[in-house]
Fold these 2 entries.
Entry 1:
Amino acid sequence: MIRDYSARLIVQEVSPRDGLQIEPTWVPTQDKIALVNGLSQAGFSRIEAGSFVSPRAIPALRDADEVFRGILRQPGVVYVALVPNLKGAQRAVAAGAGELNLVMSASETHNRANMRMRKAQSLEGFAAIVEALAGAPVLLNATVATAFGCPFEGRIDEDEVLRIVEAYLEMGIAGVTLADTTGMANPRQVAGLVERVLRRLPASALTLHFHNTRGLGLCNVLAAYEQGARRFDAALGGLGGCPFAPGASGNICTEDLVNLCDEVGIPTGIDLPHLLNLSRALPGLLGHEVPGQLAKAGRNRDLHPVPPDLPG
Ligand code: COA
Ligand code: ZN
């Protein structure tokens, strides 16, 4: 069967948030702003530019207010902020976030480790955010973290993920992200869950968030895309990971994903050479190599010189 790859795939860049949250080296505020500004020039329509969480929980992103205030906003780009509670939502709105991404785990244990509260408390907090922001010019999305597996609890019951999606929608939250926090998803599982969730909301409202922890990240993207999903999170260089999930590692790598799309003909609207330039600056910024592969290998069309001594 020849697959239809003509529908656009929307990449939401999350390196300024998921990417930097786990970095041990402090990235100065101006460098964070420069990273977001560079991404704004690459053709993304959505960039998760930071999180408004407890500075004790995630010291690396404690300057999110200054970052959101300092970036050059490209028309047509939605600048998203991750928030855990009402205080974070208020900070994010004050700093000019265009969309809030509320996060709760499907796993009770991971939610307690990550958000220091039970799922029921997270949901109460989300309801308070929705109420407090009624009429405000800000979009709302909510993430189901550990939707495909939890490093503490293992396999997550799909029905529970569906119940959480339903709870978000009932609250009036328009967008939903299914996140594979520690790369436990497989393509078959992804196709099954995406199929069920897309019966409940349109593809334009669903985002998939994969980590490449077990090497299945891009396989999972294709499985979800073939099932009708159209929006995907990815991080420049394959940075990323949740500091409160043991064994966490990087998001799927944005330039590797865009290269896949370019090669199979899925339109993304993203400028890959520009992205490669940004990615190749990451080791200098962070002081270590990054997992992404395309920045090391180059694109298929970036050819090498022919050796001069070939036999005739
Ligand atoms: N932004 C800034 N400060 C915040 C905050 C926010 N969104 N939410 C709480 N705080 C502050 C409180 O004001 C309080 O400060 P104080 O001690 O100076 O008075 C302190 O943090 C503790 O507040 P509390 O409500 O008791 O929080 P907690 O310690 O139970 O932690 C969270 C709960 C949700 C704030 C914290 O676990 C968190 O930020 N988690 C996010 C983790 C994350 O980002 N993971 C990766 C992305 S999924
Ligand atoms: Zn993540």
Note: The beta strands are 10-13, 46-51, 78-83, 99-105, 139-145, 175-180, 206-210, 231-234.
Entry 2:
Amino acid sequence: MIYDFLIIGAGFSGAVMAERIASQLDKKVLIVEKRNHIAGNAYDEYDEYGILIHRYGPHIFHTNSKDVFEYLSHFTEWRFYEHKVLAFHNNIYYPIPINRLTINKLYNLNLKSEDEVEKFFESKKENRFPILTSEDIVVNQVGYELFEKFYKNYTKKQWGIEPKELSPLVCGRVPTRTNDDCRYFSDKYQFMPKDGYTKMFEKILKHKNIEVILNTDYKSILDSVKFNKMIYTGPMDEFFDYSFGKLPYRSLLFEFENHDTEFLQSSGNLNYSDLSVDFTRVTEYKYLTGQIASSTTVSKEFSTSEGDPFYPIPTEENKKLYRIYKNETDKLKSIIFCGRLAEYQYFNMDQVVANTLKIFRNKI
Ligand code: FAD
Ligand code: UDP
């Protein structure tokens, strides 16, 4: 048997690509996944207490793309969910993204209009031009003091480097607001897959032209499988056996805890802004999933430089190494590199879906 396509990885990139190839081109696809499950980092499962958890940390779906939302709607129903986060600083919880309520609470003010908040930010902010780093983008909006309280140390914990070494795209993901909107995201579509991500992936992959092999590193089967084209969604540097050096990825360790109470926290995520706490955030999954149960499970996130590659680290230096690898990927005409790890891009799930659909349209 000769497969038309061998796809490495069963995350969003690999699964969406397989679905398109199988359903639109009627071609045979083999997906090889080294973990013991599908869904990549979006994988969810029931823990021993019967609570639906995200094995690799909180995954909240949000998008402005009608196309992406409609595409995924073929494989899942949705549950409306607008994520809310509180930041813990100096023993007090504040709404994050920074908004009018955050400012009033922190400075004991009573700013009422958006205009007043705008003026407050004006009085605090430093003009930074050009905006080259994550420090620049925040300080240019709200000033150094708020940056120091809510971004500097959290970012240092999360990335292991200072915000002034990171691309503005990192801290720029979090908006600043002058109103009292406490939602973490501003996107038009904010929904969670009703039965979870893994169930959605099962439907994406349910096609007579798609076969999936788990627990297998693709390198171990390359000699025994025949295929015409490869789509690779694993880490870019690993594909080339690190021949130009290691591309840094940030990893995480998760500590899961079940508590015999209905809810432990007052929101889906608590972010720990200070260095005195060594984890970055705690997620309470029942907020995300809407599950009703008498106990609750939370996970604490500790950032590390060792372990599974979770986040590409957007610095100038890493961009240079990325370009060297990118140059190599461009030379390989029968292998397509697709996804957060394979393209070394800090993509959200919706961006990965949009990116995969685009690669399918233009390159397959
Ligand atoms: P992955 O999901 O990483 O899939 C790649 C797959 O390839 C993996 O399953 C891997 O095991 C497999 N693989 C790698 N090497 C090999 C090999 N040699 N052989 C076989 N298989 C291999 N996005 C959002 O939109 N909202 C969120 O709230 C959100 N939260 C996140 C929280 C965390 C902690 C993390 C890490 C990411 C988060 N994301 C979020 C991003 C989201 O996880 C990614 O955008 C998406 O999962 C990327 O899909 P992918 O298929 O490109 O990569
Ligand atoms: N960030 C921060 N404080 C916060 C929330 C976010 O400093 O309370 C910074 C941090 O550097 C983080 C980045 O903003 O990595 C992007 O935040 P996001 O919540 O999007 O991170 P992700 O969910 O991708 O881990």
Note: The pocket of flavin-adenine dinucleotide (ligand 1) is lined by residues 8-14, 32-35, 40-42, 56-61, 217-218, 233-234, 252, 310-311, 339-341, 347-350, 352 (CB under 6 Å).
